[in-house]
TrEMBL record:
This is Helix-turn-helix domain-containing protein. It comes from Streptomyces boluensis. It comes from the Bacteria. It holds the Pfam family HTH_31. Gene3D superfamilies: lambda repressor-like DNA-binding domains. One of its GO terms (molecular function) is DNA binding. SUPFAM superfamilies: lambda repressor-like DNA-binding domains. Residues 21-74 form the HTH cro/C1-type domain.
Length: 276
């Protein structure tokens, strides 16, 4: 089939739904046009769902189940897609992150996922559940994905990883003193690795801080770059160098303005000892 997009069901719940829909359709020997006639949706719409470019609505899933004779299988799977705790664009970004030769990230407020201890990550997830922001199932989804991400970059050769943390990340207590002490120890260990650069952007950087939202920049083996930035409700993956290049420039400026690695580690050591 010309221009057939291969699907990775592990990429996201949406991709998994698309692969399942395609498999069921092809199992009937139907084209997208054939299914379109039976569902009342355009073939273009069905194609977008199958390739993960569009999420399946409740009505779409119900109609697909009816046309394919699958009971409520797709309707249940569609609910999992809509109830995921992952932001749009993030699952695709994670795939690129696992293949990166260089990672540059900036975070504020909390320690970034790649550097979190299991206890710190669990405390963050529990907090989100208590606030009603996510369900326990979604919290488990986040923790499982985080473990996969951390394992993916713990490889040989390891990616060169640059980390700049806003000072708020290391001063905000999470999970109690024992959890926070272990997390600060983890940061010190990270800074000692030969493939890492670790810096803190101090509070007195003020208006010179380059970013107001978490940002990750990834370089791939083919020398292409992508960026991923997110707010509380939305994630954005960007490949166009017209937009990625200014973010790279801003990141370099942020590194120049931040504390050196030695100064950053010294700040962490002071916090571990309970001194300002």
């Amino acid at each position: 089939m010309v221009n057939r997009k291969e699907l990775d069901p592990e990429e996201s719940p949406k991709a998994k739904f698309g692969q399942r829909l395609r498999m069921l359709r092809e199992g009937q020997g139907w084209t997208q046009d054939d299914l379109s006639e039976r569902m009342g949706y355009s073939a273009t719409h069905i194609s977008a769902v199958e390739t993960g470019r569009r999420s399946p609505t409740t009505r779409f899933s119900h109609s697909a189940d009816k046309a394919l004779g699958t009971g409520e299988q797709l309707e249940r799977q569609g609910r999992a897609v809509r109830n995921t705790a992952l932001l749009e664009g993030f699952p695709e970004f994670v795939k690129h992150e696992s293949q990166a030769v260089e990672i540059r990230l900036f975070e504020l407020g909390i320690i970034p996922g790649l550097l979190q201890t299991p206890e710190y990550a669990a405390a963050i997830a529990r907090g989100a559940v208590r606030r009603g922001a996510i369900t326990e199932q979604q919290a488990e989804e986040r923790l499982t994905l985080l473990a996969r991400r951390q394992a993916a970059i713990d490889r040989t050769p390891a990616p060169m990883t640059h980390v700049v943390l806003d000072e708020s990340c290391i001063r905000r207590p999470v999970g109690g003193s024992t959890t926070m002490t272990a997390q600060l120890d983890r940061l010190s260990e990270f800074a000692e690795q030969p493939n890492t650069v670790f810096q803190v952007a101090p509070f007195d950087l003020g208006e010179r801080r380059a970013f107001d939202l978490p940002v990750t920049l990834v370089a791939l083996a083919d020398r292409s770059h992508i960026s991923y930035a997110e707010s509380a409700q939305q994630g954005r993956l960007e490949r166009d160098m017209r937009f990625v290049q200014p973010m790279l420039t801003a990141y370099h400026q942020l590194q120049a303005e931040s504390l050196s690695q030695a100064e950053s580690v010294a700040m962490i050591n002071r916090l571990r000892k309970g001194t300002p």
